Amino acid sequence: MNLIQQLAQGLNKSDAEVTRFLVNAPKKYKVYTIPKRTSGHRVIAQPSKELKVYQRKYLELQKLPIHDAAMAYREGLSIKDNAMAHKNNRYLLKLDLENFFNSINNHLFWRVWESIIPLPSATNKEFLERLLFWCPSKKTGGSLILSIGAPSSPLVSNFFMYKFDCVMSDLCRERNIAYTRYADDLTFSTDRKNVLFEIPLLVEKQLVSLFGGSIRVNKKKTKFSSRAHNRHVTGITITNNGKLSLGRDRKRYIKHLIHQFSLGKLDKENYLHLKGLIAFAKHVEPLFLQSLTKKYSAKVISEIIEGRND
Q: 140-160 in b/e burial notation, b at 16+ Cβ within 10 A?
């Protein structure tokens, strides 16, 4: 069964309907920008509601290989699991891939696909790239790239990085280094002093070898740290005794929001943000949630969780 037939069957549509829809799918995106944390703006291309339905259906149908080192966008895994992989090691290195999703274009994607598994038929290939890739050009037929806003992009990027993850995992195993990748964040840790200093060069060599330099490290974000300093992995702090923590600043911020909530001064947006932070705290550092319950009362915390202001 080809891709069109699979999608048609899964979405309860005719083959003709699915074909018609996918012809112009790379143009069915709403584009906007959001400010980056440091400087500049990030371009977000959000697929139309219907295109998201198609992309999510493909996620149900796909069986693409993904390496165990890929921690993002996999069922049952979270940033907590990513941090757990490094919590007992003294030395930490973090690398960031620059403009990651948008650097993966359709031509590079198929070159990488062919190095992992056999290529699909020409028809499947054509419709699959229309389903998964965005056309940022105003001209139809322009270059296609992965968009940050598509629900299918994380899976595609994990598959795209499969060989890289295989190679880096092997290289790290030989050196007693733990390696994980959370989307564009690469994390390495070890108990052996000075071993991590050779890793950035090894990573760059593999990126050139596998992707011809299309995927690059953002050198401004390369960070070495140890137990002598704060260690952070995908937003989670690792304490000196190997525990996972939300970090002092985030805890202070949560307490501030709870205080505002208890005074009835929290607007809807900040309330929803607090609700998410409480769920995050429960997942990452349950003892902190217990301390909040003691400080503010079980009644206040349950009102936040259960949605008094919902």
A: eeeebbbbbbbbbbbbbbbbb
